[in-house]
Amino acid sequence: MRAINAIRMGGVDVLPLVEGGKGVAISNGLSAGHWALAGGVGTFSAVNADSFDSEGRVIPQIYHGRTRRERHEELIRYAVDGALTQARRAWDVTGGKGRIHANILWEMGGAERIITEVLEQAKGIINGITCGAGMPYRLSDIAARFNVHYYPIISSARAFSALWKRAYSKTSELLGGVVYEDPWLAGGHNGLSNSEDPNRPEDPYPRVMALRKVMRDFGLHETPIIMAGGVWCLEEWENWIDNPELGPIAFQFGTRPLLTRESPIGDAWKQKLLTLKEGDVFLNRFSPTGFYSSAVNNGFIGELRDRSDRQVAYTTEAIGEHVAEYGVGPRKRIVFLTNADRDRVVLWERQGFVEALRTPDSTLIFVTPDKAREILQDQTDCMGCLSTCRFSNWSQLEPEYNTGKRADPRSFCIQKTLQDVAHQSHSFEAMDNNLMFSGHNAYRFGKDPFYSNGFIPTVKELMERLQTGR
Fold it and tell me: Could you read off the pLDDT of 67-86 as tens digits, one per residue?
């Protein structure tokens, strides 16, 4: 195994080991601070992070506003307070000597306002901004305003080229690195394009080589590329290290820091990670963002899959084979199904799935009355946690503050489930009934001898292990 030497990133020398940011409330200041203290780049999530009361208890993010816009403002306040709390925790751990990044999602609600207010109030504490989930054109402008380095997360050379030509070329001196996130292996939201097949993973090496070629065309010969997604042990990436074709390379770890003593997740979540099998992480498109995402294939994902499977197309007039009348909603408004679909609906109703909910695609899904009430209540309670949400039809854009489309009951409230999984992660039931993001290599916890007999390392011990290449 080649020696893992420090590289230049954001104007300082650091180990090429980067903690991946995981929201909501999962990558926090404690884990980020210890990662940075060990010589790498620690990353806390600025996506609705936790803040605490005077006795150190997590402040529940409860909303009181009567309208979505009022609740959206509450969400922004929670987000700013939480991010500042976690930034200061990281600073306290490192004594101000480590490298700390804040991770934001460009498509989260109020992203620009939140990171701007955080940077205004945390000057000198945050060294860099990592940002993905969308095309963050204005990221470089924000970085320039506060003189911090920025690290866009992309999944193709084409995406970076578009960002560079439109915006980043004007602030090249603050581009600390480019995170290439493998869209087939990374946890959380993935940057698969419409031209890429989710079932046909591509080798990351030629894709990263294409990125480096584009970067060299722009004069970015020494700007590091941070490889994210699918990285478990560095001896498997030895041909990437000190490779003149690739140039400076660092490696980002998102899933492995979950299983450390400093990680805020509860014992049930940690035990779940130790028992995952290959294939247990599921690439799906249920997210209200519209992006693909990778998550543990548990009861929560299973219910979403079943919900979409109980789906039929309808027309509002009798057209072609759509001649079977069916009444939808309390007033039993008539729509038309095919005879074959009408027979399927009868079967579902016998099984208890008697509530038909319309989707934006002129289809109906069938759920139980309890699930229908839950879906409709979650849509009503929307607090605008995304810039646009297909589940609730929220949009942060004036004047209407909606997408102009029907809310989609095939999706879910992502803020609700991520808050629940973060703060109920001591419960095995909560682990099955909520969204658990994960990278596809998480099954390796159960196979890696480092974790034998349920061993959970400190961040320092994990970092020492990573530097051995294993």
Answer: 999 999 999 999 999 999 99
